[in-house]
Design brief:
Elements lengths: L9 H12 L3 H9 L2 H9 L6 E4 L8 H6 L3 E6 L2 H13 L5 E4 L12 E7 L8 H11 E12 L4 H9 L19 H8 L3 E13 L5 H11 L1 H9 L4 H19 L5 E12 L1
Parallel strand pairs: 1-2, 1-4, 2-3, 4-5
Antiparallel strand pairs: 5-7, 6-7
GO biological process, one term: methylation
Organism: Mycolicibacterium agri (Mycobacterium agri)
Protein name: SAM-dependent methyltransferase
Length: about 270
């Protein structure tokens, strides 16, 4: 299948690496999204004897639970700072796995190398979707399992990205929005006939960390690379900053309406390599 681009521009890679190194994503991963990793590990039936690759692993929210099952796990990510944070967490809990710096568009692994290839709210942020999907398939063994957990366009994080988009720097040519990975038809098209036994389910993550939308906004402004990037892009325009402040707070308040917890929707997808 033809990739979006034969060579991903080094400047694009550097920009994404720097973005995810800003703020405090390890804090967000631990406090908000830690429950998602075990969901993906369970859905894939990972266990002893499996050789597993976690693509765009971040701090290892899925890789560490996978290693706990007795599987042999490689956690790969573009951003060294996230790998270092994950390695420290794994060491603290006595979990052993391999940590590798890698671009999801050009994985440094051989074809048909892994029994399981997975990504938990990770590969969805690689800007060139087809190139990243091609790599997921390439490194998976025939008959091996592929598993993805991605925010949906309609869910809370999908709405956050749609809100931030007008305030962010223009994406590189050929890039696609991250929440598209949360659409079943999009991912099916990326894999084509190379994936069989595709199963999907929309679920939600309950997040009860915020009292109101303003608290949600301030948390993401302090910890989340894409939000920090959006604000940096408009830092010299006070009116736009104020407008974005109001819009992000409104999203938070909308998802808190009627209770003290948010429900963040995601798509869980599993498949086998044909």
């Amino acid at each position: 299948m033809t990739s979006d681009t034969e060579t991903v521009d080094v400047a694009v890679v550097a920009k994404h690496r720097a973005m995810w190194a800003t703020g405090d994503y390890p804090r967000l991963a631990a406090e908000l999204v830690a429950p998602l990793g075990p969901v993906l590990v369970e859905a894939l039936g990972i266990g002893p004897g499996d050789r597993v690759l976690d693509v765009a692993a971040g701090t290892g929210n899925a890789a560490i639970p996978a290693a706990r099952t007795g599987a042999s796990v490689v956690a790969s990510d573009l951003t060294p700072e996230l790998l270092q944070a994950g390695e420290a967490v794994a060491a603290e809990h006595g979990v052993t796995l391999e940590w590798r710096e890698a671009d999801a568009h050009a994985l440094p692994f051989g074809a048909d190398e892994f029994d399981v290839v997975m990504s938990c709210i990770g590969v969805m942020f690689a800007p060139f979707h087809q190139r990243a999907a091609d790599e997921l398939v390439r490194v998976c063994k025939p008959g091996g399992r592929i598993g993805l957990l991605s925010w949906t366009p309609e869910g809370h994080i999908g709405e956050l990205f749609a809100t931030m988009k007008p305030y962010m720097a223009p994406p590189p040519a050929g890039a696609q929005p991250p929440p598209l990975w949360g659409r079943e038809d999009h991912v099916r098209a990326l894999f084509g006939d190379r994936a069989t036994d595709v199963a999907t389910e929309r679920r939600t993550l309950t997040v009860d960390h915020f009292a109101d939308g303003a608290e949600f906004r301030e948390y993401f402004k302090a910890t989340y690379g894409p939000t920090i990037a959006a604000y940096r892009n408009i830092a010299d325009d006070g009116d736009r900053v104020a407008t974005l402040d109001a819009e992000i707070a409104r999203i938070g308040d909308d998802f808190l309406r009627g209770g003290h917890a948010m429900e963040w929707e995601y798509l869980l997808l599993t498949a086998r390599k044909a």
